[in-house]
Amino acid sequence: MLTPTTYPSFVKYMGSKSKIIDFVVEGINDVKLPDKPVLDLFAGSASLAGAIGRNISFHSNDIQQYSRILSTAYAASWKTTESPDAKDIISQADHIIKRVRSSVEEHLHNYTNDSSLENFNQREANQRTLIDHKFDHKWHLFIKCYSGTWWSAEQCLWIDAIREVAEVYKDDPAYDVILASLMFAMAYCSQGTGHYAQYRDAKNSSSMNDILIYRKRSIEKYFVRKYSEVMQLLNAKPSPYDFVATAEDFSACLESFNGGTVYADPPYCFVHYSRFYHALETLVLYDFPELQVIGGVVVKGRYRVDRHQSPFCIASKVEGAFESLFRGVNRSESNLVLSYSNTGMIDLDRMVEMAGSIFEGKKMELLTMDHQHMTLGRTGTRHRDVKECLLLIK
Questions:
Q1: Which residue positions in the chain have pLDDT lower than 50?
Q2: Which of 22, 63, 28 is nearest to 262 (CA)?
Q3: Residue 344 lies in a domain
Q4: Quick one: 257 and 227 in the same domain?
Q5: Pick from 233, 250, 284: which residue ends a domain?
Q6: Is residue 132 part of a domain?
Q7: Which domain CATH number covers 252?
Q8: Cβ 18 vs Cβ 47: under 8 Å
Q9: Cβ(339)–Cβ(390) under 8 Å?
Q10: How far are the Cα atoms of 111, 126, 148 from residue 119, in angstroms, in the given order?
């Protein structure tokens, strides 16, 4: 019998199952095959890896690379005597910043003396011109692409520098914790609403003052806070259970899965997660992606051209996506726990009907609970009442 363990939070995430993880694990316990692994097919923010990833053989999968990092930080990272402490990382990052600061000094601002909305917006606009700046050092992706958007140029300097230091520890078993802790710092210093669809503009004094709260936050302090917390929780040896983390399309992952219990939490609505969390993907890949351009201008969201489009978010493709999911699980001879809601892209009755035709002869059960779904907006409605469902098939 699996019992969820407490785990630290790394990112703000729409649709996260952290609030209902007991409900999810209860469903997994109902159908779990003995001595077989659990596959989290759409891991997202990796809540399930945090809750049970060290307590059973576990396979975490998501099409996004940042999810693989989060899952590994939760379920497989450990520390050695060579693993860096927060002071080591920040000292090295500070050395980098001192070396490169002079090249962007005129774009940096500490936000302590903003006297007017006009001055504030002029400074923000000045930082955004760095997207056309030529840099002579390699690790400049965030200060080039994101200054004056969700983060200030100063904050972006620290993001780039800590990311550069992280690469020094690529072979350390705590590497993923470094990146996950940097994601935490980015989330809680961002002037946005917890995701990266579009940054906010200061349209009046009230919105400017709210943005200033986040502009004044320190990337390095938030990083140290989370990294130190997690490192204290890590064991000095790896988990005794097998762990696999992949970044594949769900259908490809199911083709190679040798059977067990599949937990599937596909997207529920028409918005693509890659639109909201592209900055995390770029942090991990650090690949200087081509950004979406309209009319010769980089779009405000700074979206990657290659961002993933899920068929579960497209009305004309959602039924085909569920059919592919159900057939893939059935072929792997696995049991299934499927999370969905009554506000999803496909009607629950239709989804259950499709499952019944594919899993003919297997036991099916639909569990429901009332839940408030976080929308991550700082204004207006931040939660939406939904009926959260678990479809169990064994």
A1: 373-384
A2: 28
A3: yes
A4: no
A5: 233
A6: yes
A7: 3.40.50.150
A8: yes
A9: yes
A10: 11, 11, 13
